[in-house]
């Protein structure tokens, strides 16, 4: 069968769903109300931000939250609110978006890049244990691709060594671990509302906290050093203006009402791919232990045969089924090393960078019948593939 990249007929010619989807009626009504009110900033007396924070905190199984300008700032604020700063080390997974590490640098601490589990690609508890030093102050597990990290072993390490735990839940809106929502499993959890995420206002983020004192500290970091009950021009600590706007909150708040239906849709698509992929060619990366709800921000596929990565990505795009190449390991990024990051041995992350490809969220929002196009195109391309480094 001739590949589309060589002039053959593509597997798919119909467009995939766009992301983000158009505003629904509830979003349009709330955004219009906020615009008409003139109360566009979170300090101007509107309710959209406070209502969003309250709803998201409840959804995360905690009492407190702070809306922020983006999730990178949220990670920074959570770390600073938990007392992490210069001289401290923070352990992060090697297979994640670079902001997980750069937020640590922003807080003045040193990222320590540890390996992920070879099967599920989430932060490995044994790798964390091997990376500990007297300077270790915190862990940042990432709920990668919408799957919850296996938090119990990580929390146990943190408890034994007196470490803070900040969950990077940027991709995991609505995911649950052992029937508990992510975000509320550590000391703080951070969500993203960037354009590609399961809930988006173009940009934005939200920090959720279990303890009142952590919430007060994070709130102060995000509100120029003020205190919750202090004077407007009282700034007893150093802080920054990291706030979300009322307009962004108005886009996000109604989204909570449809989030579960969208998660169900993505899971149906993912299940169809997992069922029909020929196991000799490729398989879906398994969920971590303890997963009770995977929000499926991405569907990660591991290819089991040798392949030329650049060719496969180009050939899949030509077939009308574009895949993403995924993350390079953080330890391979010179800028992080130059900024002082320390990298532990990370063979599992290096293997993932070679063998793992992603189906993006917009494609997962297609009808589950569209999963057949992913399976057909990948099988077609792999069957005709040149080997690694050929051509």
UniProtKB/TrEMBL annotation:
Pfam families: DegT_DnrJ_EryC1 (PF01041). Residues 1-20 are annotated as: Disordered. One of its GO terms (molecular function) is pyridoxal phosphate binding. One of its GO terms (biological process) is polysaccharide biosynthetic process. InterPro entries: DegT/StrS_aminotransferase, PyrdxlP-dep_Trfase, PyrdxlP-dep_Trfase_major, PyrdxlP-dep_Trfase_small. The modification N6-(pyridoxal phosphate)lysine is found at residue 197. Coiled coil: none annotated. The keyword Transport does not apply. The active site is at 197 (proton acceptor). Its cofactor is pyridoxal 5'-phosphate. Keywords: Pyridoxal phosphate. PANTHER family: DTDP-4-AMINO-4,6-DIDEOXYGALACTOSE TRANSAMINASE (PTHR30244:SF34), TRANSAMINASE (PTHR30244). Belongs to the DegT/DnrJ/EryC1 family. This is dTDP-4-amino-4,6-dideoxygalactose transaminase.
């Amino acid at each position: 069968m001739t590949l589309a990249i060589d002039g053959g007929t593509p597997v798919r010619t119909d467009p995939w769903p766009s992301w983000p989807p158009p505003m629904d009626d509830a979003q349009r009504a709330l955004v219009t109300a906020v615009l008409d009110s003139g109360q566009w900033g979170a300090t101007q007396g509107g309710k959209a931000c406070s209502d969003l924070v309250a709803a998201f905190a409840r959804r995360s199984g905690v009492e407190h939250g702070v809306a922020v300008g983006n999730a990178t700032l949220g990670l920074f604020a959570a770390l600073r609110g938990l007392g992490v700063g210069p001289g401290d080390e923070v352990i992060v997974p090697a297979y994640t978006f670079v902001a997980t590490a750069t937020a640590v640098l922003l807080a003045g601490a040193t990222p320590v890049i540890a390996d992920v589990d070879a099967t599920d690609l989430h932060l490995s508890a044994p790798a964390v244990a091997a990376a500990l030093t007297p300077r270790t102050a915190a862990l940042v597990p990432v709920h990668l691709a919408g799957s919850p990290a296996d938090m119990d072993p990580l929390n146990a390490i943190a408890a034994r060594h007196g470490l803070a735990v900040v969950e990077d839940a940027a991709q995991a809106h609505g995911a649950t671990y052992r029937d508990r929502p992510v975000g509320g499993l550590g000391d703080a959890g951070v969500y993203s509302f960037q354009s590609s995420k399961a809930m988006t206002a173009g940009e934005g983020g939200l920090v959720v906290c279990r303890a009142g004192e952590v919430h007060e500290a994070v709130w102060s970091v995000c509100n120029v050093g003020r205190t919750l009950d202090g004077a407007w021009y009282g700034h007893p600590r150093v802080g920054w203006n990291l706030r979300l706007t009322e307009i962004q909150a108005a886009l996000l708040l109604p989204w909570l009402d449809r989030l579960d239906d969208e998660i169900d849709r993505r899971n149906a698509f993912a299940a169809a791919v997992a069922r029909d992929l020929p196991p000799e060619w490729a398989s879906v990366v398994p969920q971590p232990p303890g997963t009770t709800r995977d929000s499926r921000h991405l569907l990660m596929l591991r290819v089991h045969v040798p392949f030329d990565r650049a060719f496969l990505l180009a050939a899949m795009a030509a077939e009308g089924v574009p895949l993403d190449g995924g993350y390079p390991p953080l330890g391979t990024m010179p800028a992080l090393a130059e900024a002082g990051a320390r990298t532990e041995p990370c063979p599992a992350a290096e293997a993932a960078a070679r063998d793992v490809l992603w189906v993006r969220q917009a494609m997962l929002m297609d009808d589950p019948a569209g999963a057949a196009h992913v399976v057909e195109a990948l099988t077609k391309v792999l069957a005709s593939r040149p080997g690694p480094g050929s051509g």
